[in-house]
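HOLO CASE FILE
Compound: (2R)-2,3-dihydroxypropanoic acid
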Amino acid sequence: MGGEAKHLEIFPMMNQPQSNPDQEDNGKLIATAKAILHNNIQGKFTKPAPKLYPHQWNWDAGFIALGYARSDFRQACNELTALFRGQWANGMVPQIVFSVQNVGKYFPGYYFWETHGVPGKPRNARTSGISMPAVHGFILNRLLQLAPDARAHRPFFQRMFDRIVLLHQYFYNYRDPEREGLAFICHPWESGMDNLPSWEEVFTQIHFEASEVPPYERRDLDHVDAPYRPRKPSYDRFIYLVNRLRQQRYQEPEMWKDYPFQVQEPMFNAILGHSNEALIELGQWLGRDTGQMREWHVQTNKALNSKLWDDTKGIYLSYDRVHQRHIPIATAAGLLPLLCGAPNATQSARMVSLLQSPSFAGTPENPAWLCPSTALDEPGFDPCRYWRGPVWINMNWLMFHGLNRYGHTELAERMRTDSLELVRRFGFWEYYDPRKNLPSSQTPYGYGSNQFSWTAALTLDWLGA
Ligand code: DGY
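Model generated. Tokens follow.
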């Protein structure tokens, strides 16, 4: 494990459960979570992790804002304001807004993306050229609920509302060419779940020469050991796609004509749908016309069901629109349409039983922490590797809200307690091994970066701090 693992071991890793985690523990958790966020502040925004991710990431910024909402509302607003400084003229909000201070510390950096001088990119922000899940609408709505003085912050909410509507327009105009109500992602990094086995299925359909992958040097492996990060063939494909985009100078919609990676993914669209609902509420508060958002919301929920629901498996699947096929892999993302109200009662009951089945919850002999990112019985499952199986706190937080929405309060509570227990026992990691009974020789249980900002932020949100 790289350097980050060595910092701030206030909650030492241990193999046996701590008995009776109580209020005192919560006090410690809160103090550590706040310290992590504070240490990761980089000027106006908070980086996702001390070393591995030294710039501002898009959906991270949303979750991180929640971590400040109750204790430092101004910083919560700063996170979103800083991110949207990178918004392009067409509405796209980039996956990364680069910090000038950390040039050269991350790959692929600003110069590799070659967005400089691209028409529509803001001149005063250094950004990548792709986007990420549109969490901002529902994050903004939660900030409104938590604002110490909502009226005083009305100009902020107005400004952000307009920016977020522009972002949704971008997704529906440029990423939904058939006007189906489903936006496609053009790169695994846009899903936020970079290394799901689902993307391998798409990659098997994409053929290119080795010479089409520009030379590159990874920096992630300076900080995290290779078994926990994507393999080289996946990384080659990530870079191949970036190269395709930069060669086209990011000119949409023209560049989509023969572009090989276009996937309609359930979580991405569920998040967009849930943010549509939030925009409707925010728009009402601001006295705005919300007709367009209502249409988007209805259409996205309908399309999630008509196109991405798989009735055999009882879960939503991704659809590869270039090769016109569903990707038959069960992942946590396939359960997240619970968040935007798409499933009916029968569908939600089926997803809940899948979530409690050996596919996600394990067996009495080999129980799992909820919720593995990739189902335990998928051939691509790997308990340690990035998105191939480990538990992510942001996914659990989204699922917690989705389950509560459908009245599955006990299971929602398990999402919360499993998450807090993982943090309490092993620390504030980027992701965690889903296996409860690990050989006692195996440490750590947490992988990627330690002192991970959204793990800290969502812990604070759950503990109401
Ligand atoms: C990474 O470097 O793994 C990031 O997730 C890309 O956005």
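CASE NOTES: Residues 1-19 have pLDDT under 50 and may be disordered. The chain has 16 helices and twelve strands.
CLOSED: yes
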